[in-house]
Amino acid sequence: MLRLALTTALVVMVAGAVADIPRTPGGKPDLTGFYDSGTLTPLNRPEYFDDKQFMTQEEAAEIVEREKARLARLDELSDPNRGAPETGGTGNNGGGNITFDTLPPAASGGVGGYNSFWTEPGSFVSEVDGKYRTSIIYDPPNGRQRPMTEKGRRIRAQNFTSFSYENDGTASWLAKPGPGPFDGPETVALSERCMLGFSVGPPSLPGHYNNFKRIVQTEDHVMILLEMVHDARIIRLNSEHAPDVNRKWLGDAIGWWEGDTLLVETKNFKEQTGLYGGDENLHVVERFQKLDNGNLLYNFTVTDPTIWEQPWSGEYIW
Question: What's the count of helices (H) and strands (E) in the chain, helices before strands?
Fold first, then answer.
């Protein structure tokens, strides 16, 4: 049984109850509240950390100071006498707070996108059990997502089709056969259409803005309202999955308690998901654990055999 396997794997996490946390009338940890999931800890471990899972406090402080300096630079007043952007743009989207380097150049070039005023990726490095992680991902041990299958690489590229065409000042995509990125709304990326935010998941990953979440908990449901695109995840407790013919953008989520840890299993996604590269075979298991300081330890495992060669897992603090 899946639940039995998950329970065995989580013995260490649920061995003891956390005493000094709010609880519901039924005695379960009360997760209700507002949380900020922004963090300067990247999803994938940067190459310069090599095989180090943890960084020193000094290294974490250096990352924070570097981010402050970057924001200060971006907040400087623009020169009102500056010239027009070069034709076709410069291959970036105008110097926002995007801290990841996995996205292709934006089609809008350097003519302007979200500037730093509108973005808030986080102001600290996530600290778990008193240690500063070099990445959110901890399995595999190299701290990076598993290699993608050929299908996964193709889907990931398709997710950003409307962002990634080279902009030379002309409709460059017309030189290629087939539909272009702007032929209709269905060809535009889900996040560009605001069908799904680009950090909503599941799993819920930090983005460069709109990282707040509100949890409302009852005895039968847990609702997670995401600031990004205002998506609302409804998790049914002690329930069963609906038939797989009923597929949803955010998948079908059910949850149950193992000690003081809430486990959530989500599947039955549509062909496109909030996790870039994921498809209808995506299966996500999340673990929510209330800490005595009021924060949440958020842990997740992603399985999608048609997209990633093996599962991968991560955790960070909300």
Answer: 5, 13
